[in-house]
Amino acid sequence: MPTISVLDETTINKIAAGEVIERPASVVKELLENAIDAQATAVTVEIRDGGCSLIRITDNGCGIPKDQVATAFLRHATSKIHTVDDLMTIGSLGFRGEALASIAAVSQVELISKTTQTLTGTRYQIEGGREKSLEEIGAPEGTTIIARNLFFNTPARKKFLKTPVTEGTHVASVVEKIALSHPDISIRFIQNNQNKLYTSGNNNLKDLIYTVFGREITANLLEVSASCPGVTITGYIGKPVIARSNRNYENYFVNGRYVRSNILSKAIEEAYKPFMMQHKYPFTMLHFQIDPQTLDVNVHPTKMELRFSDGEFIYNQAMNAVANALAHKELIPDVNLNEKEERDVKRFEEKKAPRPEPFETKRKDVLEHQGERPGEKSAAALNTVSYRQIAPPKPSLVKEPDISDMMPDWLKERKKAEEENRKAFLQPANGSKIPVSASETEKEKDSNTVPDSSKPVSDTRPVTAPKQLDFFGEKLLDPASRLKHKLIGQLFDTYWLIEYNDHLYIIDQHAAHEKVLYEKTVKSLKDRDYSSQMVEPPIILTLNPNEELLLNKYMEYFTRIGFEIEPFGGREFAVRAVPANLFSIAKKELLLEMIDGLSDEIAAHNPDSIYEKIASMSCKAAVKGGNHLSAMEANELIDQLLKLDNPYACPHGRPTIISMSRYELEKKFKRIV
Questions:
Q1: pLDDT digits (tens, 9 = 90+) for 358-370
Q2: Which tens digit of pLDDT belongs to each residue from 489-526?
Q3: What pairing do the DSSP bridges indicate for beta strands 284-290 and 257-258?
Q4: 3-state secondary structure 393-461
Q5: What is the pTM of this model?
Q6: Cα–Cα distance, 629 to 133 (Å, whole number)
Q7: What is the 3-state secondary structure (H, E, C) of 99-119?
Q8: Residue ranges of the domains in the chain?
Q9: DSSP class of 616
Q10: Would you identify the CATH topology of the domain 9-198?
């Protein structure tokens, strides 16, 4: 029978440390909150090797008296509360009295502190929960705590730590959250002797958002201000145009404490629901001041969770505050064009709505083109200008769409190749025959009284009930069958109708082009066959620590497919080149979406899944529904689609081709009963 015994103090401390200290970021959080509770106005956080080897927190707070230094490292020793009643009116970030004891139990801690009333400071060392020294030392006012070699005495915990880069990213995220929760405190973050963050402490939340998140997000903020008995909500929310694919940018603070709450998250997302696409999440930076008596913050040792005495009331107040900030606002995204784009748009508008020019203006243009000016030649000489020189060119037989100037590069190159192929087709080599159309072939067969047994006889089958289409036989996918495809036209500027062998085929141009681009990108990724297109000026991305970690982690894959990305200082990265097939859509939003899409941990162990995620972004370059294509462009798209192994579904699972038999049509029109 097991014996019940009381655990020794060392074991108790290590178990308690396991509840509070999960990783270096936990140490930084606890010590930074203690500095804020000590009424510090400036705090410096320094780490090395992700915080595994060194964490140093320096503040200018009130300090700790010498006779209380050793007591501060005992379990449940705190200056924040004195009785159980104080739990209902907590205004500080820390109150459990477990932080210093837990940190000292699993690391080598050195504390230097001085109060305003003393001439000298105090230096205290404790390792693994055991005191080493206590002495006087010269020091400035405030407190400095150094934690070295985290989990040095618990190797089982240490082996579960991630790489220094990953742990450093978690520390940076914690420092950012606490800095945003206290804009009145100047916080500096130093990682491996490099300044990563420095806030001014001027109590201006918008300036702080600019420092942490950059100009783009700051330029798309809406102010929130709401108040009712017991609750005050202030801060900023982002316009839907800066929505992200995850909740990492949903930030809210309750009484200066960064927390996670399902009630607040659901309230915010419900207010955004009419303005946001599914699976998109907003940017929020909201501060809630709530009566402490209606909160229970003593829920979890890390103090990341809390409970509301009236959750429904808080939910309604949060939702209404966000909804009112969004209401009656013009949320149309602004489009900033560079000079080249402005010229392209102007050229497109001029071509879309040409204005007739007077004859004299045209004659003047012709003369200037010839290096002359009006009045320098006689009237007889002017009459030698032929009408052909000033008349507009005759339209071609196939009318090109007005969107040609804004046509993606792949379409322009394809049209050029199609024109070259057409010329070669009309001028065959010696001894070859010029192919004829399917209709001419049928007429030739009908005119023959004696069929040639060496040639197949077409259209001799009786009308029968429909059966499963043989897509993989020598029919639709047979290259010889393409001559028999009769392109009827385009429906709703989206669907192409094709008649072939008693069937009507309907092809979705957007889904079809998505599939073509996806297969092409996947193949180039696996074969490492790609080309890059330089971007001038480069695209500047402002990334948070998690996005920066993901980008550096998967940089090799981005480089393989044609991206050229390099640090641009601070949190910014410059994208100087992109894959050629993504050049027309290489925008900041797409690149951020690609990085967010790689946050799945499974992708880290499966390179093919990473390639598929990146390749799926190429679908953004596909021609959209509602874009009018010429018959030549449609034929080329169909050719590329039918060359694929599986052309019948786009990368998202939607069908690219559907069909209806002649038999079914005749049944609908009651020709067959």
A1: 444 544 554 455 5
A2: 888 888 888 888 888 888 888 888 888 888 777 777 66
A3: unpaired
A4: CCCCCCCCCHHHHHCCHHHHHHHHHHHHHHHHHHCCCCCCCCCCCHHHHHHHHHHCCCCCCCCCCCCCC
A5: 0.60
A6: 81
A7: HHHHHHHCCEEEEEEECCCCC
A8: 9-198, 205-326, 357-392, 407-425+468-673
A9: H
A10: Heat Shock Protein 90 (3.30.565)
